[in-house]
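Consider this record:
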Amino acid sequence: MIKACRPPEGLSERLLGSNDMHLMRKCPCPVWIERPAAALPYRRILAAVDPVDDESKDSARLVMDLAQRESAQLSVVHVWHLHGESMLRRGFARISGAELERQIEQTRLCHLDGLSRLLANYDLSIDAPEVHLLKGNPAATIDGLTRDLQADLVVMGTVGRTGIPGFFIGNTAEEVLQTTTASVLAVKPRDFISPVTVSQMA
């Protein structure tokens, strides 16, 4: 589904979610939110993937498949972080600096391996200049890279829990849509179940 982006008009829409957000959360097919000032044809596309998270692996392949359909320069980004790093560094669960660095490096290598495995399906290498493995907050990092690369379109996955209609977790795609100046193509997992159904007339 392709829709022109419409900015929020008031506080209630910001709190409850715009039509763009509702489509992203509930539409069973990929949702393409087009910015009014988008340059056509696209010159650069950024594919944001997460090949490590169990809920996102399927979406990562879908993101890559869709991103490569356009005749534009393709860049790929995977953003990772160590869960609970702030608590491990200075919170109640604090651990030694050496152990923290070991866990961070172990996490990096895990994500490096996952991204390498994904890229191998598309004849891409982790060392390619168009591939970015970055540590940080996913939404902010994707938004920053989008601006640095001057990407026209961000293709990324959303995450849903199997068997729970319309259940949407992880607001990275929503945050990116609210902050980026690029168009966004949001892809759901193959097993996503939309809460919207069509009632048949008797």
